[in-house]
Design goal:
The structure holds two protein chains of two kinds. By secondary structure, chain A is mostly helical. Chain A has a domain at 27-237. Chain A has 14 helices and two strands, in the order ααααααβααααβαααα. In chain A, strands 1-2 form a two-stranded antiparallel ribbon. Chain A is globular, with a radius of gyration of 20 Å. Residues 316-321 of chain A have low confidence and may be disordered. Chain B is mostly helical. Chain B has a single domain (3-279), classed as ABC transporter involved in vitamin B12 uptake, BtuC (Orthogonal Bundle). In chain B, strands 1-2 form a two-stranded antiparallel sheet. Classes of the chains: A mainly alpha, B mainly alpha. The interface between A and B is large, with 45 and 47 residues.
């Protein structure tokens, strides 16, 4: 188990060093990738660890983005506070969402999350005075931080801020899934009836994980608004919910790191394909189908499987001893 | 315009909208009932139906041929997809289907763009119904009345087919207990291919019928799939009667909401869905929670 940590640290070091070696357009892409990775990872808590498939995770992203965009435009709060407030707001609203959605299970749960996301979409479209309607909120500034800190106004500074959010959230999630709380979540995933009979109120655990996942998704959205400079209804459109779910599954659900890789794969592939061919979505679709057929464990599963296969012969020798 | 005439035109409008939604919803619910698959490609196949219908109508010079052939062609595409890909995945969990049907939706949407170009295409209504009729002295497009009739005829036809034919019997039996049907010597895989094809064909039928009303465009896929989900969820996944009730409810909420409270129409539909799911998590006529 030592090599994953070494690899992870090397990867983080690379991400930290990136602004010194990469051109500006690549840094924009990388920042977006960090934000999308955080978004996908937040969904993995629900999909991968609790098997709560959500078709409406954009609700979290959009809520965070609109909340942070609105606060940056209409208050003078510094950026980090805005991001924290938007995260908390999303998390608090998600307690209500979780309470309603966990009334159902399986496909109905997924559809309830979708209904809630669509409801937000409809509200964002019509509540023009707050959300800007179909135009959305434009010109969202990356305001200077507290105590005159101007670092966050630059692209590089903002990248580090987003990266810190991603790494912090990743460490938090890893602690969470390794804790007794995470064990209950996995219990729900494997056999909810059994977990209930062991005396756990699984509904409360599910509401809690929905709230945490939405809060982190909200954090990603809260970062996206000042990154892109706008928040519009596209951030609440159901297509993005489908896409982020695919990032989780293609990357490898239930691994935390997999969905981040999935988001990277998704974004880079889209970027590369769209520069080569106009019909990039066609190949995109074919690649997803190929993944399901030939790599059911996702990217992370492929990578770790490859390592395991290489280690296998050794293990066999030891067994014979 | 008198209040009564206005109300009547709104009701007929809502009924014609419900008819289009019903074709989508019933296909989706049949597929779910048999295979437990939420078909994300349903909207894309609906769109494919509209475009294939456009080409056929131009090639043959008549809308009626398109109406018959386009669902058959799209149904064949669906059945082929089931045979080639879905069939390998029945032992896997739901996320696999989600991914492949999402992939299919992307492929179909993009293929349509490559074949028919990026523009919306106008499909003329059949001559017989291209005029107007007068309802209580108010002019009303005849084509919408035709849609209402077509929806009613198809609903009765599907209902009777499910209740009285051998295929209908197999479909109902497979949705209740596939293993038992298999044990009785029926090729369940064939039923699945058939139902997936029929479901996709019904979506295409909706697409062809919608085309003269809204033109064949790429946007129709992504908006309509959510409507279809809402219908199926309200009615109860896998329930034929549920999809009919769902289509009527959504059709009326959309048309009347758009007319009387346009600001809230969109939200109403989702509120309705939330309300139904909170009260009855399996949908109005669904069995499972």
């Amino acid at each position: 188990m030592r090599w994953p940590r070494a690899l992870g640290l090397a990867f983080v070091a690379l991400l930290i060093a990136a602004p010194f070696g990469l051109p500006a357009f690549a840094m924009t892409l990388l920042t977006e990738l960090v934000i999308l990775g955080l978004f996908a990872m937040s969904l993995d808590l629900m999909v991968g660890y609790t098997r709560l498939i959500s078709f409406g995770h954009v609700a979290a992203y959009g809520l965070g983005a609109y909340a942070s965009g609105y606060m940056l435009l209409n208050t003078s709060l510094p950026l980090p506070f805005v991001v924290i407030l938007a995260t908390l707001l999303t998390g608090v609203i998600a307690i209500g969402v979780g309470w309603v959605c966990t009334l159902a299970t399986g496909v109905s749960f997924a559809m309830l999350t979708l209904a809630f996301a669509q409801l937000l979409y409809a509200i964002a479209f019509k509540w023009t005075s707050v959300t800007g309607g179909s135009d959305g909120l434009a010109g969202i500034p990356r305001r200077a931080g507290p105590m005159g800190l101007t670092l966050l106004t630059t692209k590089t500074g903002f990248y580090y801020f987003a990266l810190a959010c991603l790494i912090g959230s990743f460490l938090l999630c890893r602690k969470l899934v390794a804790s007794p709380f995470g064990a209950v979540l996995r219990g729900i995933r494997e056999n909810e009836a059994k977990t209930v009979s062991l005396g756990f109120n699984t509904r409360l655990y599910k509401i809690a994980v929905v709230a945490i996942a939405y809060a982190l998704g909200g954090l990603a959205g809260a970062l996206y608004a000042p990154f892109a400079g706008f928040a519009n209804t596209e951030l609440l459109f159901w297509l993005l919910s489908g896409q982020v779910l695919i990032m989780v599954i293609v990357g490898g659900s239930g691994t935390l790191i997999g969905p981040i890789l999935g988001a990277a794969f998704f974004l880079l592939l889209e970027h590369q394909l769209s520069s080569v061919t106009e019909a990039w979505a066609l190949f995109f679709g074919l690649i997803f189908i190929g993944f399901v057929l030939f790599a059911p464990e996702g990217i992370w599963g492929l990578a770790t499987g490859w390592v395991k296969r290489r280690e296998k012969p050794l293990a066999k020798v030891r067994l014979r001893d | 315009m008198s209040t009564l005439a206005l109300l009547l035109t709104q009701v007929v409008n809502a009924l014609s909208q419900s008819a289009l939604l019903f074709f989508l919803g019933v296909g989706l619910t049949l597929i779910f009932g048999i295979m437990r698959i939420v078909n994300f490609a349903h909207g894309a196949l609906y769109m494919l139906g509209a475009f294939v219908g456009y080409s056929l109508a131009h090639w043959a010079g008549t809308f009626w041929l398109a109406l018959v052939l386009a669902p058959l062609i799209v149904g064949a595409v669906g059945a082929a997809f089931e045979l080639g890909i879905l069939r390998r995945l029945y032992r896997r969990d739901a996320s696999a289907f989600l991914l492949v049907t999402f992939g299919l939706a992307l492929v179909v949407t993009e293929a349509v763009r490559l074949i028919w170009g990026p523009d919306a295409l106008q499909v003329p209504a059949p001559k017989l119904f291209s005029g107007v009729v007068f309802l209580l002295g108010e002019p009303f497009p005849a084509y919408r009345l035709f849609l209402v009739a077509a929806g009613a005829v198809m609903a009765i036809a599907i209902w009777q087919a499910l209740e009285r034919t051998r295929l209908g019997l197999l479909i109902r039996a497979t949705s209740q207990n596939a293993e038992m049907v298999h044990a009785l010597g029926i090729d369940v895989n064939l039923v699945r291919s058939g139902v997936f094809g029929i479901g996709c064909g019904l979506a295409a039928l909706g697409g062809v019928l919608a085309a003269p009303l809204v033109t064949a465009s790429h946007a129709m896929a992504s908006t309509v799939i959510i409507d279809a989900f809402v219908i199926v969820i309200i009615g109860g996944m896998g329930s034929f009667a549920g999809s009919l009730i769902g289509a009527l409810l959504v059709g009326f909420v959309q048309v009347f909401g758009n007319y009387y409270l346009p600001d809230f129409a969109l939200a109403f539909m989702y509120l309705l869905m939330l309300l139904v799911l909170v009260v009855r998590p399996g949908g109005l006529l669904g069995k499972e929670a």
